[in-house]
């Protein structure tokens, strides 16, 4: 009976994803400005991420995104991915970038290929949606991670968004 209970308990082990910090930086204040960029903790189990970037020179017809994944080993070290994708031409051409956009696709207004003539918003990306992506879609090893994205418009680095998270 104890053996059956242990097997049942081991099968119920699951990972937990948690946002730990977010930092948004506009490198060209004449092109884009960060209106807000924060984590909000409603209670112990519900935390969400929100950000809004105001675009001042619209429409934008050429955007590239560079995404790099870092894992914490005595400081953050490169871990597996550092990719750049032309976002407006073919955003789903890279499987790793498609996985990354799966985190916030349903919570943002950047899921189209037309030229951007509006502000960029990610509204209330909650831990439950991110946890599904990290545990069910593609399991991620335990550890502390940093996802750093550089938003490049017209071949000039315009903004950096750093999302810190942990998987336990």
UniProtKB/TrEMBL annotation:
Residues 1-15 form the signal peptide. Pfam families: DUF1091. SMART domains: DM8 (SM00697). InterPro entries: DUF1091. Keywords: Signal. PANTHER family: DAEDALUS ON 3-RELATED (PTHR20898:SF0), DAEDALUS ON 3-RELATED-RELATED (PTHR20898). This is MD-2-related lipid-recognition domain-containing protein. It comes from Drosophila ananassae.
